[in-house]
Automatic annotation (TrEMBL):
<dbReference type="Pfam" id="PF02995">
    <property type="entry name" value="DUF229"/>
</dbReference>
<keyword id="KW-0472">Membrane</keyword>
<keyword id="KW-0812">Transmembrane</keyword>
<dbReference type="GO" id="GO:0005615">
    <property type="term" value="C:extracellular space"/>
</dbReference>
<protein>
    <submittedName>
        <fullName>Sulfatase domain-containing protein</fullName>
    </submittedName>
</protein>
<feature type="transmembrane region" description="Helical">
    <location>
        <begin position="12"/>
        <end position="31"/>
    </location>
</feature>
<dbReference type="InterPro" id="IPR017850">
    <property type="entry name" value="Alkaline_phosphatase_core_sf"/>
</dbReference>
<dbReference type="InterPro" id="IPR004245">
    <property type="entry name" value="DUF229"/>
</dbReference>
<keyword id="KW-1133">Transmembrane helix</keyword>
Amino acid sequence: MSIFDSFYAKLQAKYVLIFILTGTAALYFVYDNLLIASDILLNARPSVKPRVNEAHNGWTSILGCPLPEVDPWEPEDIKFVGKPPDKIKECNIVKNATSMLENGNLWVNLTGNSENTSCSYRCLNYKSDNAASPGAWIPYKEPGPAKVICDWVDVECKEGKTTEYRQIHSQIYTSEASNLTRHRYNVYILGLDAISHSQFHRTMPKTAYFLENEMNGINFKHLSKVGYNSVPNQMAALFGQKFTTVRHAPQGYPLFNMSNPYFCKRKHSKDEQYIGFVYNDLGFQTAHIDDMLPLVQVYPNCQGFGFAHTNHSTVPLSAAMKDKQFKKAVLNDSCKEEFHLSVEFFEAYIKAKTPEAKFAFTMLTGPGHDKLDDPYRYDDYFYRWLRKIRNDIDDAFLLVWSDHGHHFGPFYPTNHGQTDTRNAMLTVVLPKKLRETPLHPVVQNLRQNSITLVSQYDMFPTLLDLATADFYSSDSFTKQLTLQNYQKLNNRIREVHGDSLLRPLTHRTPTCAGLGIPFIFCLCRWPLFTPKDEAELKKVVINDLPPVLNAFIKSIGAEDECEQYKVNEKKAIEVYEVATNLVNPTSRMIRSKFSITAYNGKLPFHLQVFFELTTNGTVSLAGRIHRYDTGWASGRCRVDEYEQHFCYCKSPPKKCKGR
Ligand SMILES: *[C@@H]1O[C@H](CO)[C@@H](O)[C@H](O)[C@H]1NC(C)=O
Ligand SMILES: *[C@@H]1O[C@H](CO)[C@@H](O)[C@H](O)[C@H]1NC(C)=O
Ligand SMILES: *[C@@H]1O[C@H](CO)[C@@H](O)[C@H](O)[C@H]1NC(C)=O
Ligand SMILES: *[C@@H]1O[C@H](CO)[C@@H](O)[C@H](O)[C@H]1NC(C)=O
Ligand SMILES: *[C@@H]1O[C@H](CO)[C@@H](O)[C@H](O)[C@H]1NC(C)=O
Ligand SMILES: *[C@@H]1O[C@H](CO)[C@@H](O)[C@H](O)[C@H]1NC(C)=O
Ligand SMILES: *[C@@H]1O[C@H](CO)[C@@H](O)[C@H](O)[C@H]1NC(C)=O
Ligand SMILES: *[C@@H]1O[C@H](CO)[C@@H](O)[C@H](O)[C@H]1NC(C)=O
């Protein structure tokens, strides 16, 4: 893929799994097997009946949490995760910028252009979370400058009908209307979509070094994702709610539905417990900085807010990319990718002297979403950029964060890939004053919490705490806040599913069951092994699993829409046992991968299903079906996201409607 991925390619890659398993799949399977823990001694009986005489030493309860040991430089993973490029392709700027936006003044240099060239400019105004409204073109009058009163300005110079010059500039425009009385630290999130903890350290070592060593950033080692992709994880941080449904789980794990029942079905309202509104309520200015459309709350065909939900936004930039000529001029011809322009805007926001404190949610997909080795190319850029702005964040918390790890392609189904995809990244850089006070309770708590299991549900309460806590009083951070406390701080809050990372987490059980993390997305890793009764278990998969899957389809009244499950016995069937003690001590946890028949063999190669097997042979699902290769694409005849994963629609999959 070229440096300049097309907008649509990115869009597809971000949310639609484009990975189609081919003949190489077999190879990955072999590889996957090699990684399976083989040091567990046991004597499983050659039957699915109760286990006897098994060595359970080292087995951990399913209600416990064996934290994974990760090695970002694991030699065996290199064939999947790639290496630093030998050399980064050079790019020649076709036309240097001869226009400039400084302190609200736009300068356009016509030097070198013909006498007949005339320039004009327009504001790209922010209208909603999926649309911008460009203002009228205004002729640029020599010798300038022109006063610009908007965040985004589009500049064009034409000779006759031919565009000679096009450029985009950004600033943070604020009408100086209010006087600030209350001081708060600024809160900035720099989000790097799909870059896991390991991947960040492997591919962006300079950036990680700078954050962790020069800025004393506190790096969280065990941040678990709570859902499959961007939506449930980013939305958990932004709304503090559950945007995933769990109707099957191991015994002892919670079952739950999306806690915002209207998500995607109707527009978010102004009363939502959205973090941007919370910050606005508390007197902050807000920015949502992204490098593509749709924004997470509008994906895939969701309604979003339908209005401008933050004070500043990159929506006008992303919306303008539909104009091919604009896109070529501001990206290709300028040797930039869209995220570079977003970072420039973020920098302007960080540097803006606003009367209010500032909050920014930045989420960049360009640097690392598509390919595991992409971020190598941007490490130096982010390193230099952070060095450049280091003094501008003295009065800010900077959270460098990701929503989840890579979730498609050949690395994803491997054992290491499965750990990696669940292990999101978080490094907290403190305001200078706190950086220099290592004994401050906030610093101590963050350090303590950085080595325990935390989840994306902790982001929202942490952001709330950052906006409201009294950092000058040392006993502010001795105990956790309750829902009632949060509601007193902001009356939009209706539900909170995690805890503030600024406070002790000693009151809770640091396990996936304890933190409400769905089992199939849980970072805790129990070893797998090949049981002695593997052959019998394969028969269970063939004979007993499909009726359970079909019964669920029936229970949701979808048997007319979805194909019946039948295991394809000609394709590989894989079974592993999970070395874990279940709530019912005689039950066993099995991970199976298999193919199904339907669609005349056109169906994806394999599914993964975890299930519990009781002594009498009863199968119960431990989570939803995991479709490595297709995501929702073939389940679109169902509305409910959870059901989509279970359903292969009989009619050809409905095309994504776009917007
Ligand atoms: C752009 O500016 C750089 C540095 O001043 C110069 O080396 C380069 O030749 C210029 N490119 C064009 C196309 O004018
Ligand atoms: C405009 O031209 C002048 C004179 O050549 C030069 O000094 C200045 O840097 C130029 N400004 C921009 C934005 O290119
Ligand atoms: C500018 O436009 C005028 C009128 O169309 C034309 O006569 C003249 O040749 C043009 N000058 C240049 C340098 O193109
Ligand atoms: C802000 O404060 C200044 C100086 O105290 C005062 O002159 C000005 O009117 C205030 N502006 C607003 C909008 O309150
Ligand atoms: C989730 O929603 C389904 C369908 O409305 C309902 O049957 C089920 O009881 C709900 N589960 C929980 C845990 O609330
Ligand atoms: C930011 O947006 C909020 C909500 O729309 C609004 O109340 C507030 O005045 C805005 N602040 C600024 C500085 O524009
Ligand atoms: C941008 O540049 C790349 C590489 O030079 C090229 O492959 C691509 O087609 C260009 N895109 C556009 C929109 O011009
Ligand atoms: C098998 O055991 C499960 C729970 O242990 C029980 O719910 C189920 O009814 C049993 N099935 C049969 C056929 O005995």
